Amino acid sequence: MLVVMEAHATEEQIRAVCQRIESAGMKAHPIPGAARTAIGITGNNGAVDVGTLEGMSGVVECIPVSKPFKLVSRELKQENSVVSIPTPSGTVQIGGNSVAVVAGPCAIETREQALAIAAGIADSGVKLFRGGAYKPRTSPYSFQGLGEEGLKILNEVRERYGFGIVTEAVDHESLDLVEKYADVIQIGARNMQNFSLLKRAGRAKRPVLLKRGLSATLDEFLMAAEYVMSEGNYQVILCERGVRTFADHSRNTLDLTVVPAVKRLSHLPIMVDPSHGTGRRNKVLPLSRAAVAVGADGILVEVHNNPDQALSDGMQSILPSEFLQLTEEVRQIAAVLHRSLN
Ligand code: PEP
Ligand code: MN
User: Fold this and answer.
1) Interval between CA 309 and ligand 2 midpoint (Å)
2) Of the given ranges (33-42, 150-159, 163-172, 264-273), which has the lowest mean pLDDT?
3) Which ligand 1 atom is nearest residue 273's CA?
4) pLDDT tens digit string along 191-220?
5) What is the DSSP-derived secondary structure letter of residue 109?
6) Which stretch of 44-58, 140-154, 310-324 has the lowest confidence by average pLDDT?
7) Atom of ligand 1 nearest to the CA of 136
8) According to the model, what pLDDT value does residue 67 have?
9) Which of 21-35, 142-156, 309-323, 324-338 has the lowest mean pLDDT?
10) DSSP sequence for 111-144
11) Predicted pLDDT of residue 50
12) Cβ < 6 A, ligand 1 pocket
């Protein structure tokens, strides 16, 4: 259920409606929009008593949300949501008029490696740096990440180069630490349906970058975002990173059709990861161009100073020099769509 407030409803009227909802044992989610505030209701078992809410001052109407996802839905909020990420170099907005770029290695391997890559991409003007301190690996014998030590290195990258930091949490313990050190909490593809982790991320005070699961349908993807939002964290960025298909010419099949599909159903921003989406270095540039052309709100690209020696995902990592070329090309494509790069 969705309570639509009048355009000029006061804070007090909105608060009173929220209190009425909460006192009936449900959860109220006031979502301000450009024209008016809508209040999403979750946690109701069965029908909501619409009569009492509709009679309250400042309320225009109560409308049922037809989709299984409520807070994620465009029915709740017509205009695009913009997630703001404060960084030492200024605020990065994802979902607005600019296209955000996140770049860095798959994993933080050493301090020297992270700082060298950061130095290599600093000239591009991008403001968000990525790198995993906790790596979900297929084999338990593969490099698992440096843990908190990796987060400290990322902190140094932030201080030296002014980047905002995006890094993955794989469980509750790592999420506690990632929340402390990073600017954006990444939830990886393998954890997209780890519901207890999604709820924990929903209680975090940082934006969440939620990657699509390896075989997740669009509904499942949006329901995962709903988990985060239902706990009160509305700062969610979706990320398409390829799904598993019969195709064997690339690691995954990058599903760019999901971008306009998400835009139709949801107000949330969506980024594209052409690195995991293809798994091949030579496909990262063309798919980055395509991602921006199809309307993605950002791209996430793996960059390494020595890809052949990388401890993870070297085959899909590009050199800093190639990354600079990539940002120049996508900047021009974004400009055609009247968007800038940040
Ligand atoms: C990553 O970003 O390095 C990563 C592990 O991504 P995904 O969860 O999409 O595989
Ligand atoms: Mn990776």
Assistant:
1) 14
2) 33-42
3) 9
4) 999 999 999 999 999 999 999 999 999 999
5) -
6) 44-58
7) 5
8) 85
9) 21-35
10) HHHHHHHHHHHHTTT--EEE-BSS---SSTTS--
11) 78
12) 106, 132, 136, 188-190, 211, 241, 276
Closest CA to 71 of 296, 228, 238, 261: 228
The closest residue, in CA terms, to atom 1 on ligand 1 is 106
Give, to the nearest 10 degrees, the angle between helix 195-202 and helix 172-181. Answer: 30
Look at residues 141, 129, 156, 183 and name the one whose alpha carbon lies nearest to residue 300.
Answer: 129
pTM, rounded to two decimals? 0.96
**Residue 333 CB neighbours (<10 A):** 17
Helix then strand then coil, % of the chain, to nearest 5 = 35, 25, 40
Strands (E), the chain: 2-5, 27-32, 37-42, 59-63, 83-87, 90-94, 98-104, 128-130, 164-168, 184-187, 208-211, 236-240, 270-272, 298-302, 340-341
Q: Any idea which residue has 């997209």 for tokens?
A: 192
